[in-house]
Amino acid sequence: LNDIYQSEALWEEDYSEIENMLPKIKSYEGKLGLSAENLLAYFKLDEEITTKFERLRLYASLNKDLDLRDSKYQELYDRAMNLGNKLSSESSFVTPEILDIPEDKLWGFLDKNKALKHYKHYLDNIIRRKSHTLGKNEEKIMSYAEPVEAAFMNTYSMFTGADIKYP
Fold first, then answer.
1. What are the tens digits of pLDDT across the range 98-125?
2. In 3D, which of 67, 69, 76, 68 has the Cα closest to residue 4?
3. Is the pLDDT of residue 165 over 70?
């Protein structure tokens, strides 16, 4: 796993960096529909955070799966997942806010700023799922339920995987 992180100290650096980026996410709340530039800037920030987070999560998850009895990596994984829950909560406003942008204005943003065309599929998916998307406050509440939902599967996988005897 050294290809992902050379050391846990580097993992910790990325973890801290992501935590410090959380307020930047909130700084876009209420501003995504103001301009194509705001929307693009948010998407770039989201990409940067998501890339770092997925690397962080992958490293913790793979280390945990090497030996489910090793509590050190279970703790690392739990920290990564808690950070993921914070990210989800902090960004829960995004989808409802994008859906509040009139579609002609949203597609006008893509015409105005060619860099946004990269996100067309993402925006198409948001609009396609509109009828299944709650309001900003409800999406925030749902983001708080994610750890509870994951707890059952995590518990099951720990009990079923920790005692496997490999040849």
1. 999 999 999 999 999 999 999 999 999 9
2. 76
3. no
Q: Is the separation of the CB atoms in 55 and 4 below 8 Å? A: yes
Angstrom distance (rounded) from CA 153 to CA 131: 28
The DSSP code sequence of 139-156 is HHHHHHHHHHHHHHHHHH
pLDDT band of residue 67 (cuts 50, 70, 90) is confident
Q: What is the pTM of this model?
A: 0.79
- First-to-final CA distance of the chain: 23
> Can you read off the two tokens belonging to residue 149?
């939902």
Q: Say if residue 60 is exposed, middle or buried (CB neighbours under 10 Å; 0-12, 13-18, 19+).
A: buried
In degrees, rounded to 5, the angle at the alpha carbon of residue 47 between the alpha carbons of residues 105 and 81 is: 120
Residue 115 DSSP symbol: G
Instruction: List Cβ neighbours of 57 (8 Å cut-off, separation of 6 or more).
Output: 77, 80, 81, 84
Q: Phi and psi dihedrals of 91, rounded to 5?
A: -100, 10
**Does residue 31 have a pLDDT over 80?**
yes
Cβ neighbours of residue 51 under 8 Å, at least 6 residues apart?
none
